[in-house]
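step 4 of 6: structure.
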Amino acid sequence: MMAKELFPEAQEIRKGRIRIETQKDKVGEIIKKLKDNSYEHFVMLSCVDWIKEGKFELVYQMWSYQYKEHVMISIKINRDGESMLSMRHLFPQIETYEREIHEMFGVNFIGNPNLKEFILEGWPHMPPMRKDFDTEKFVKDFYYKIPEVKEE
Amino acid sequence: MTIQKEFELFIGPNHPGATGNMSYHIWVEGDKVKKAETRVGYLHRGFEKLMEKRIWMQNVPLVCRICVPEPDVNEASYSMAVEDLMGWEIPERAKYIRTIILEMARISAHLLTVGGIAASLGIYTAAQWGIGDRDYLLDVFEQITGGRVYHIYIWPGGVRWDLPKNTKELLTKVLDYLESRLPLYDDLIMNNKVFVRRAADVGVVPKDKAVEWGVTGPNLRAAGYEYDVRKLEPYAAYDKIDFEIPHYPKLGEYEVLSEGSDIYTRTAIRMLEIQQSIKIIRQALKDMPEGDVLLKHPQWFAWKVPAGYAYSHVESSKGEFGYFVVSDGEKKPVRVHVRGPSYTHGINVMETIAPGLNVADFAPTAISLDVCPPDIER
């Protein structure tokens, strides 16, 4: 069955692109149902920072080779430390996407044991893909100043 | 004295098996690989963050830098996402030109990979040939776009300018030359007994897991699926062009030696795709209509892209290359997320199929998955 028949709330944003807005406790169920209905290619997991709303949007994206349709399952969680359950049991590559989002946005995925360093190494600062991380200010503070010498 | 059974090895960040700046950390026992971990981060330039700080048009010269061997897929995919949000339909001639450019890029990337796979098995001549023959295509790129490596030619709304008048002659000459070279590649690589023995049945991606693991492109087709974005969701002028999708077990002139998606089949698929790309370019050159190549759109400083979500994907030489773009109706994107094919091939797939490999087969397996690290870390 196609996504629109499975989920009445799904909206077609353009031809072959479906968007489902849902709550975080329903994501696992939706992905599983889509996977069983020939949406068998997990394309990617994205995170969008909506800083004005104070939310992170997680977008789980899947593709069906049979129906030639791309589905975006979208949920919003609070920016200040709300966690999400890991979905790595459904598709193994989700583990890496979660690892990256944990590093770049600071979202915690419960049940993912592999949230270790991915791209950044020894990064003590704010996760850099957050909108409030100011790249220019960081560069000026970090590289353009002569550090103060302290007595040993 | 205690005997250390396990030994740690670092493959890369500079190694024939690790293309570009990435590395694999592997644990071996004797000469068997026990465990592998992919290490990335040597090449992170923060493209996605930079894109949020720039206006839509300023991102075009940025995105091509995400993949060095085949930069045009980025420009095409990003432009298609912007066109999707804008609701633009590009001129017919621009579609054909995009097809030509994308196929030229595919051939040049495949030559590099096929040469690389052969080199990792000791046939160093192939790598020199691949790089040498690729250069003739880069010459044509230079004639058309002004750039050899990064072309910045495909723009939202079409292509930057029309093809120079002598393109057809130049390109036909190069294609004829490449076609005459392919039998020599076959003799050197595909019919080479050393290659066949080392490559067949090594580094297998199981067919029943390939789709679930997110394998795409030639690696998926080598496993036996006839899936290609050019056919599934035709972009540019692919819907008007007659071409085939080489896939296992239809390997044309090559012998079917294994169960699929091993190093040998993945190489064979790439060789067959070069033939198809030559065919596509010839057709596109023949059928290309006259007309405009760029939409007459507003001055690009003034672009405001309507709010919304868009995902556009193209078939790169490595697999599905996609751009997820979010706009809030302003002059700059809210978020651009790049889906590179290497993200799954280089990390999950490689880490899963590596245990059990002979350590000498590790590099050929890694390179035959055609991993391009910059699209992992963007």
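step 5 of 6: annotate
 - The two ends of chain A are 70 Å apart (CA to CA).
 - Chain A has a mean pLDDT of 90.
step 6 of 6: archive
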